[in-house]
Write a structure and sequence with these properties.
By secondary structure, this protein is an alpha/beta fold. Helix content is 33%, strand content 25%. The protein is built from 13 helices and 19 strands. The longest helix has 16 residues, at 379-394. Bound molecules: cytidine-5'-monophosphate. The site of cytidine-5'-monophosphate has 13 residues, from helix 11 and strand 16.
Length: 399
């Protein structure tokens, strides 16, 4: 088992549907899985090693003879958290049933105890043949998850049961095997995190104490629930999250352009970043001398959240954050209304708590008056509480 818990071997059999698995590699990567492709030698008649290596960014082997000192079949079998075979041909299924080990993929299947899912694709006559029917039932009795192929148009003029399922269905079934709640599958979430820095001169800035931990926790939770996630990080000293597209920004102006770029794309914007309320009117190109620093002229930054809310399309959900030291709920309700957003989490920052911590304290309020109080909880827990509320709103008919 790998340390990431997300190592997937994608076995690809020698059927024409192999070309559809190229997209599957990409979509699995979008969800944070690390993919090693192991094609059968027959697969290479349809899609070559170069394509699999370029897509996965990893070396691709088909035989145990190709990396003898590395003992690839044992090494890969040990590292795999999950094995997904898509497409699986009638021949590949038969070889697995018999316990054959005549290529790298079948060696790995024998040597690994990881959960295994098989996505068959073949002509209906082959799928419904008594041998295949019996082989599939043997694999199921041994704990393999074997999807039923789709019914529909096949490669030639025939149609029937045997079609390779759509990528979305494979991902959904795969997420279920992995044991994740994939309620955000197909959803696009834009998250901002951290705090902006407004330059005064080349060495100084106006900033704030936001660490970015809450925004990163939201991005992490959203990708684990199946979403595609874009995270805009303002000055966060945190490790990248596998599968999440991260854009790093410094100032409110850079944050604004990054949001502008992806706002159209997203189903929900979760605006966790602490945007500086004001910035210096001018940025000196040279370091300002100490004696000239008695005052800095400031101007307000645009309210990015209110701007997004004012140009949202029906159905798009917008979540804001606030930090208050007193009258939390009253201030939060006013902010929710003024900005025209759906949900707001108000951090109770009395005493300077929360900044940089893994814990949070505050309340979630929604425009329909729902209030959820988090008296002392992990930022990770709040992330899921907020995503539950976002999910509820995304499933409403367009509001
Ligand atoms: O108005 P206030 O700063 O308290 O509101 C906080 C919320 O508004 C946060 O979600 C923050 O990301 C957002 N905000 C913004 N643009 C600003 C100031 C705050 O989008 N200039």
């Amino acid at each position: 088992m790998s340390s990431s818990g997300r190592e997937v071997i994608l076995g690809v059999g020698g059927g024409i549907a192999a070309y559809k698995s190229c997209d599957l590699v990409r979509r699995l990567q979008d969800h944070g899985y690390l993919i090693t492709v192991v094609p059968t030698p027959a697969c290479l008649n349809f899609v070559g090693v170069a394509t699999w290596e370029a897509l996965s960014g990893r070396r691709v082997l088909t035989q145990v003879w190709e990396d003898v000192p590395g003992v690839a079949h044992i090494h890969l079998a040990r590292e795999a958290d999950f094995i997904l075979i898509a497409p699986a041909t009638a021949d590949l299924i038969a070889r697995i049933v018999q316990g054959r080990a005549d290529d790298l993929l079948t060696n790995i299947v024998l040597a690994s105890s990881a959960p295994k899912m098989i996505v068959p694709a073949m002509h209906p006559m082959m799928w419904l043949n008594a041998s295949t029917v019996e082989n599939v039932s043997i694999l199921r009795s041994r704990g393999f998850i074997v999807l039923d192929p789709d019914i529909g148009r096949l490669t030639g003029s025939d149609s029937g049961a045997g079609r390779f399922p759509e990528t979305g269905r494979i991902l959904e079934e795969f997420h279920q095997m992995v044991g994740e709640n994939a309620d955000f599958l197909g959803r696009k979430i834009l998250v901002t995190a951290g705090g902006t820095r407004e330059p005064i001169d080349p060495v100084r800035y106006i900033g704030n104490r936001s660490s970015g931990k809450q925004g990163y926790a939201i991005a992490q939770a959203a990708i684990a629930r199946g979403a595609q996630v874009h995270l805009i990080a303002a000055n966060c000293a945190l490790a990248d999250i596998e599968g999440v597209k991260i854009t790093k920004v410094e100032s409110a102006a850079e944050l604004e352009s990054a949001i502008d770029e992806d706002f159209e794309w997203c189903d929900a914007l979760i605006m966790c970043a602490a945007v500086a309320d004001a910035k210096p009117v001018r940025r000196d190109s040279q370091k300002i001398k100490k004696n000239a620093l008695s005052s800095i002229e400031l101007e307000p930054t645009p309210d990015l959240l209110a701007k997004a809310a004012s140009r949202r399309r029906p159905g798009q959900v917008i979540v804001g954050f606030a930090a208050e030291t007193e009258d939390h709920l009253a201030n939060a309700e006013k902010k929710l209304q003024d900005k025209g957003i759906d949900l707001l989490y108000v951090n109770d920052v009395s005493g300077g708590a929360i900044f940089g911590s893994d814990m949070t304290r505050g309340s979630v309020i929604s425009k329909d008056g729902i209030i959820i109080t988090v008296s002392e909880g992990k930022k990770e827990t709040l992330a899921n509480v907020l995503l539950d509320q976002v999910q509820n709103r995304l499933s409403l008919p367009n509001v």
